[in-house]
Amino acid sequence: MAALGMAILMVSFTTLIVGYSVSPVRFTKSNFREVELETVSNFRRALAISLAEVSQQLDFKARVRQYSTYLDLDSYPPARKLGYDIFSAWQNLTMLTYPGTGLNLTTSMPIFHCSWNSSSGISWAGANVSLDILSYGFYGYSESSVASLNLTLLNLNQTGSVTSFFFSLRAENDQPVPDLSDSSIHIFYNKTNGAWASPDGASTRIYYLGEGAYYVRFNVNATEIPTAPHIRLIVQDSRGIVVGAHDILSPSTTGDDCGPVTSNVAATPNPSNGASSVTATATVSDLYGGWSEIQSAECVVKNPGGAVVRDVSMAAVDGAFNEMSEDVTVNFNVAGWTLGNYTIYVRGQDSEGNWGDTNSTILRITSVPSMHVESIDMSWQRHGWHGSVYAIAVVAILDQNGSPVRNARVTVHWSGATTEGPYWGYTNSMGRVTFQSRSVYPHGRLTFRITIDNVQKQGYIYDPAANKETTDSVSYP
């Protein structure tokens, strides 16, 4: 009986085991290339964020002392420690972000350097990173990275109450920084009585000249600022990194004998397409050498034979000539002008009386363009073998030169097998628009006819006499 009981127990246990199946356990895997790229990219960001925090802490301390002290990190070590803490927190977070990858991440202690006590200031951070991704057999990646912001003050110019200077701002790898705004910079100047002051924000203008170079101008009472003032500039880039520089700037020894530069000369509409008036626009700027305000601008128009047909003054777009760079405009009548190419010349004059060189553009005086129906292509379609029938018409609209007219509104109506309309549609880039009639059940022969009622587009004339077709039809069967 005991042997029989053991046999029954073994059979039952074997049956129980057979009734179970083992399913594989699946773990989500990350692509090791994504892990590598994200880690390295975030390493660079973390370095820049750390430098931003360090430089902002240093700037806070320096600002409290009106920038008389705390102009380098050695004078305020706690700022450097904050950068270490932020960088370490990033490393710890990264290790937790990729569990199961065998990520082995090693970074050096970042080096921070800020020196703002000369005409060329720098905020700089550097660190090394190495990583392995053991689960993929990826070993030995290493990189050195730098985040920096370099500020250099350049020469000064003073004209009455206007003080202006240039500065250059570049990031790591000597990359120009082009995206500063008025709120990104803080200017301080040493007054004649020795006190530090900031210019009125409403009178301060910043102009980007390209390649990381900026031009700044501000207004102060001429009696409050020395001929060669002590200027301090604090700049913060879009990453939050702060850098400072200061210098006693020497004014230019030569006066303004350079005329303003004229650019972006344009005419609207061009070609005129029968318009009775044309607007000429341009930009006149003295930022590239003269540094004087724009006083006036003039526009001269010559016909195809070289004779002057217009000689007019231009107005400032913003309503007043009071900037070193002005957008200018003038509107003049062209009704009755002979068709052809006219040349528009524009030049500007600065407040010192210097005229700049002219710049020009070609204005094409043309007649009002016409358009017509080039073709109507008809076909019929049937819904199924025993279904209803409908017609399709494709209308092509071209101008007098044979070019497609886009966005022309075409109005039509149907007659014959179905009477309906008016309908309208707009031509596409190929000058074509498609119309579809209602469906009709055939009881003998069907004839669908479409007729063009009108074609409309602003700036164009519809010329029905030039139509190749005005109506067309298709029959079924």
Brief descriptors of the model:
Immunoglobulin-like, single chain, 3 helices, 4 domains, 477 residues, 15% helix, mainly beta, flat, 8-stranded antiparallel β-sheet
Mean pLDDT: 87
Radius of gyration from CA coordinates: 38 Å
Which residues sit in consecutive blocks of at least 5 with pLDDT less than 50?
Answer: 11-28
Distance between the termini: 96 Å
- Class per helix and strand makeup: mainly beta
Strand content: over 45%
How many beta-strand segments? 28
Question: How many separate domains?
Answer: 4
Question: Which outline best applies?
Answer: flat
**What's the helical proportion of residues?**
10-25%
Helical segment tally? Answer: 3
Largest sheet: 8 strands, antiparallel
Nutshell version of this structure?
The chain has helices at 2-18, 32-64, 77-97, and strands at residues 103-107, 111-115, 120-133, 138-159, 162-171, 175-176, 185-190, 196-197, 205-210, 213-219, 230-236, 242-248, 261-268, 277-285, 294-302, 308-313, 315-316, 325-333, 340-350, 359-365, 370-382, 389-399, 409-416, 420-426, 432-436, 446-456, 461-462, 471-476. The chain has 477 residues and is mainly beta. The protein is flat.
Topology, please?
Elements (H helix, E strand, L loop, with lengths): L1 H17 L13 H33 L12 H21 L5 E5 L3 E5 L4 E14 L4 E22 L2 E10 L3 E2 L8 E6 L5 E2 L7 E6 L2 E7 L10 E7 L5 E7 L12 E8 L8 E9 L8 E9 L5 E6 L1 E2 L8 E9 L6 E11 L8 E7 L4 E13 L6 E11 L9 E8 L3 E7 L5 E5 L9 E11 L4 E2 L8 E6 L1
Parallel strand pairs: 21-27
Antiparallel strand pairs: 1-3, 2-3, 3-4, 4-5, 5-6, 5-10, 7-8, 7-11, 9-10, 11-12, 13-14, 14-18, 15-16, 15-19, 17-18, 19-20, 21-22, 22-25, 23-24, 23-26, 26-28
Helix pairs in contact: 2-3
